[in-house]
Amino acid sequence: MGLQIKRGILYTLLTNISRFVLALVLMVSGFVKAVDPMGAMYKLQEYASAFSADILSDDWLLFFAILQAALEFLAGLFLLMGVYRKPMAAFVLLMFMFFTPFTLYIAIAGPVDDCGCFGEAVTLTNTETFLKNLFLLLLAVVVFLGRRRFVCHVSSRSRWMVVIFAIFYIAVLEGVSLSHLPVVDFRPYAVGNDLRAMLQSSYDTYDVVMVYEKDGERREFASDELPDSSWMFVESRSVLVSKGEKPMIGDFSIVDWDNDYDIAGDVLADSGYVCILAIENVDEASVSRVDKVNDLYDYCLENSVPFYAATSSDEDEIALWRMRTGAEYPIYWADAALLRTMVRANPGLVLLKDGVVVGKWGASDIPDVELMYASPTRMPDEVPTFTSSVRGWRFWMLFLFAPLAFIVLVDFVSGRGGKTALKAEDKPAEHDKNVKDDN
Q1: CB 265 within 8 A of CB 297
Q2: How many Å is the maximal CA-CA distance in the chain?
Q3: CA distance 35 to 396
Q4: How far apart are CA 137 and CA 96, in angstroms?
């Protein structure tokens, strides 16, 4: 009997550990996609191209990206809190029963470079992705079989609060990140990154090993510790001492075609402020806030701050853009992938200071020039904005776990209150029936 109890405890422990691991992985995966819906859409574009599904428009791909992030996050959160344990355990099992063979095919055929499971936050090889999903599938089986053993953090009477808050949270997170800029930026051009340092690279380092022979014995010697003349030289070979590192942003290039010159070096060499207006495609760029951009350009001219615009569009499209917006700033060429990596807005502003990214805005979020005149440093990075107040993972973790803790507390207090009232009335049987939690 004691052995059976111990086995039950171990099985319960294994089930809940597996559940927490699955929940955290799904929440992280959903979160990093939700903070960058456009990035998730770009990854789906790669899949659509690889599987000849180009008929899907970007709007549909964006919808699927938003939906996927929400479903992953909600499934993970519901598992974590222990609400709707039976349907959630079945849903997660079915999810990994699909993704595991799919990623096996990806690992074998290699239609895409990486799966994009964790957005821009973590890059896994296709083989690593398959092994990860295989491990999570095993955990999902354990969780499904032991779903009745969940240690739930809220009872059935309070789970509606968890559901409503979770949907509200993920909707706000994706809405803010899509309407403005990603609230958590995992890309190389994130605010605070030193672009000069990220462009540095190093070469592989080798050492020369000399092989000598004496009396049938071969021995290796360093090039500065050679043996005496009694040893006969056989061969020399190079041995890798340290592996070099590739630059993290080796594709950073902004080209002035008229003068056949890459101005990227000048941009990074400037020790002061530099504004870069990224316009991925002028045909699709928003013109609703171009007055803000034009005012900022005039402000930069007045304060001797370099202002560059970069686009992947051709000369005719640029000329049309100037006619539509009245733009007088210089416009250069840059690769579309670089521009969308720098800032998830079209157009979007990147502000550098001494080679460091100190600010990023979509066109609608660029501070008004009047506010900059009132700022001590007189540049946009010192002007408080809505996006600056909600940026960073700490804010969103607090926004997530503080209400969840409050819900757990309310559930606990209400449960204790119910027990006290029923105890006073001496109706334990009725109380047990009322509080039974059959998730």
Answers
A1: no
A2: 104
A3: 10
A4: 5
pLDDT in tens, 119-140: 888 888 899 999 999 999 999 9
The single residue listed with the structure tokens 């003349």 is 229
Point out which residues pair with 331 in neighbouring strands: 309
Cα–Cα distance list, 127 to 9, 29, 140, 317, 405 (Å): 35, 18, 20, 42, 38
The answer to whether the beta carbons of residues 312 and 280 sit under 8 Å apart is: yes
Which H or E run contains 310? strand 307-311
31 by Cβ neighbours in 10 Å (0-12 / 13-18 / 19+) ranks as buried
CB 116 within 8 A of CB 40: yes
For 59-73, what is each residue's pLDDT tens digit? 899 999 999 999 999
Going from the C-alpha of 146 to that of each of 13, 140, 151, 291, the distances in angstroms are 10, 10, 11, 60
- State the sign of the Cα–Cα–Cα–Cα dihedral 166, 37, 31, 133: positive
| pLDDT single digits (tens) 382-399 | 777 777 778 888 899 999
First to last CA, the chain: 28
